[in-house]
Amino acid sequence: MGKKILMLVGDFVEDYEVMVPFQALLAVGHQVDAVCPDKVAGDSVRTAIHDFEGDQTYSEKPGHNFGLNATFDEIDETSYDALVIPGGRAPEYIRLNKRVLDITRHFANEGKPIAAICHGPQVLAAAGVLGGRSCAAYPAVGPTVTGAGGTYMDIPVDTAYIDGNLVSAPAWPAHPDWIAKFLQVLGTKIET
Question: How many structural domains is the chain composed of?
């Protein structure tokens, strides 16, 4: 039976990091509700494509519009089995929303599966749930993980890391490993 998964997003979420896990989790039978503070089902968020082209940091290009399928103000986090926090620029400002932090704390305190990628751990840090935890993130977010009492895992960009219920990765090149590890933590069995 599929799990009910909440995805926290905002404008300029990273395009691949919202689209790919959203579609992959649906494809294997999970329900995914994508929400954004101050937006309702049927609204959309703008996305940004971050690429690694040899510069000192990623480049940024306009992405697609991503449709929200649930209303943020109607969320009851106790009814969800897991949480996904994609990266991009959205985490830096959705972490300022008290309700986002309360939702995130619920999943952490209940030991429910959490998947965070790239800048997504900024939300975990702001919620105060990284103390004593090991977490991968985009390298520029490493000091944030450490400052929040976590251990920053400096792993290859195409790999993911599991610490109990938390599955994290540096960026979208890790999608195959990150999604596979999240499915493992969810207990998802895929029949071939």
Answer: 1
